[in-house]
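To assess whether the prediction recovers the assembly geometry, we first specified each molecular entity separately, as shown.
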Amino acid sequence: MNVAVVVFPGSNCEHDVVYALRGVGANPELVWHRDDDLSAFDGAVLPGGFAHGDYLRVGAIARFSPVMAGIEAMAAAGKPVLGICNGFQILCEAGLLPGALVENRDLSFICRFVHLMVDSTDSVLTSAAATGQVLRIPLNSYQGSYTAHADVLAEVEANGQVVLRYCGPAGTVDDEHNPNGSANGIAGVANASGNVVGLMPHPERASEPILGSTDGRVLLESFASALVKV
Amino acid sequence: MAQPQHRLLGMTDGEFDAVVGVLGREPTDAELMTYSLMWSEHCSYKTSRPRLGVLPTQSPRVVVGPGTGAGVVDIGDGMLAALRIESHNHPSFVEPYQGAATGVGGIIRDILSMGARPIALWNQIRFGDLDSAHNRYLFGGVVAGIAGYGNAVGVPTIGGEIAFEPCFDANPLINVMCLGTLRAEDLVLGRDVEAGAVAVLLGAPSGRDGIGGASTLASASFSGDDQEKRPSVQVGDPFAAKKMIEACLELCDRKLLVGLQDLGAAGVCCATSESAWRAGKGIDIDLDAMPRREEGMTPPELLVSESQERMLALVDPKDLPAVLEVAERWETQAAVLGTITVGDTMRVFEKGKVVAEMPARSLADGAPLYDRPAAKPDYIDEVWAADPEPVPPDDAGGTLLGLLDMPALGDRSWVYEQYDHMLFLNTVVPPGNDGAMLRVRGTSKGLAVSSDGDSRRCYLDPRRGAARLVYESALNVAVVGAEPIALVDNLNFGDPEHPEVMWQFIETLAGLAEACGALGVPVIGGNVSFYNSTAGGHIQPTPVIGMLGLADPMPDRPPRLDAGEEGMELWLFGGVDTPDFAGSALAKLSGAEPTGRPLPADPGVGRSAVEAARRIACSGDAAVVHDLSEGGLAVAVAEICIRSGIGARLDGSDWRVLFGEAPHRFVAAFCARPKGVEKIVGARRVGVLGGANIEMGSLGSVALAQAAAVWGDAIGRRMRGA
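The predicted structure of the complete assembly is given in tokenized form:
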């Protein structure tokens, strides 16, 4: 269950992710962005933060960091790869996930708990959850609005690659409960084979009762169990 | 006729003569620039220092008191906490986004300079009324700047304080505070530094930004036409800061440093002279070694540039290769700027020639001190003679709605939801409560922090107002279960060359000293911001407190405002309900200028209330414990109701009790009424949580949903211009 937690200059959630992954029994290790060989690991997490300052465009510089060669190899080999927040943005920018993340609808940073509905359990992030399950997890982003070309969106929907959608406390997916204007309320999306997943909310921030929610654990546990299977 | 150069740099003729006296000759351009900055009010505290001695600064927990990068206290188990507060008032008025952003950057570097990891930020911000589009621009820009910088630099912003008063119309106040933690053995003091130690400049290259910021912006009043001062505001780069922070923390962790100081006001000349002086040594610096962003910078510009994201490390020469390797790995620039020398002389070289040669002590600790005259302002007797009691409200429900609609009393989530307040997974009691609580991982402890400021009450009686502020801040950390152990203060005042401003300042210090003494809480650091005056008008005297509390052990479930439930009894504790409307929210709502004389703090009751609140919060008996502040009991209970989503039935029948603001009071909502509750200081049952309305006895009622809607949109609707 060795999992690489990638540190770009400007990452800031790496220690939180390590802490939460340990809490679900995984064995995380910090890996600097200049390392390009991740073959010793069973999976990888790209944590939240501001890789390379988010300069130019979120993820635009990070996708050229040497470590991305290792991430691409891992993704191609079917190993679990998870991008959280900035990590999600980087995976999209690198073409490992469909779509892109743009500025929130209201053009302000959003840090608060949101509700998510599990739309597919066919991914390394959601395998232990139940379809329709509602999770309460913090969001923390400025460029968190998911968007994709209409054809790509249709394909992603048809393939069941949408794993999480923003919703209300009772699971209602609608504009009112869409915090940032994401297309179809998409909060998390997987690649076609389900081993690469990105989501904007932070499951590591909802992994202990004292933090106000433990709903992120089911996602981290799904991910940890995928590490074992590889 | 052209002014002499020293006057253009903000120096008096007497100060110039003093420089000539120190040097025994006329200063060079570089020297004059350096002295003008180091002897500015902002850097030297030449007006405030003679007065600050009244504040208590010692306790068994204090490791480092005022006068260094940050105050440091021992929180037990080999752990220390570092706390520091600063103002960035003038830069934020000139350029709100960058002014606030660089304020955040500076306070983070202060904490870092002690060897501590910055773990949380607060900000205390004050503006004129949001009816004005310019104030909305300033408020929105400041919040965006704090968010844009703080979120990206990777330090969570856990809370703060907001106020809107006409006196801040032309002089907003932007105070920022940072908390850090460190292991005792990692503390960096920079005192044991040998001659031969290398001074390494870390971080961003230097440019012409912020030239003279400390003298021309921070130590002078505004005239009203200040856009030309914009080049004196620095520009922040949180990404450069983040890399530099991680590099510095690794250097501290690996014991590769003997000294560390941030470059803030007055840039290189301040950091080098203070580092040398602290070590009791001199320093040689070579300006040719400075990485720079711009061509053709002159020695004075290089010495005083306030470019952001720079630190000065003092390093044993044998560790220099390791230091450079760490910097390279974190992709942060490092340049060997100079060497610590025997003696007291700071020598500055450019192209092999000495361009400045000054005693380091004369810069760091040699500014002339001023005993400025003080006189009680004329308005004081006038306001004290007046009766502050407003006209009794016809309908307490309508009055309560009016109070909840005040932007300083309404929902602050419009602000704090723009800040990452959850990073590091330590935020146990989040923003939106009286005090925030952070767990200290690896221990059983929690650190509670509250930030509180006041201008209306301090305007009416600075001594009483300041004392009450300390008690209120202490109560705010007590209600989440912590014991107040130290505080930092940021003293925002007008032009000290006016005797009435000096009187306000001296009275404020007296009030702070009285309350800190009575509570046994030392002042471990602070900042004085004078010259908050525009076009002849001074701001109201505005002390801002950052109170640090220690909960050991931290309660399993610290009380929170949103934890109230149907049927819980509401009890009021602490001070008496003597009507007190001087400077109150109700008086402001009624449109009156602040008037009257606030009640004094009662040290005995104040101490008992703080201790009682802490005990109740730790007992597990109370779901909610909440300090009574602006708007009194009615607003405090309404906040519990709105946050918990449940109504309340209050027994009261006297509107003065509902809306008065007498000191030392707090309310608790009990899961089960504890035995002996009536013996707790000032205990009286005031009602019960339940229903869909906030009912205030015979005085009126308001629907919870309506109260929640008004409160929830108090800031948002104004920012939409509605």
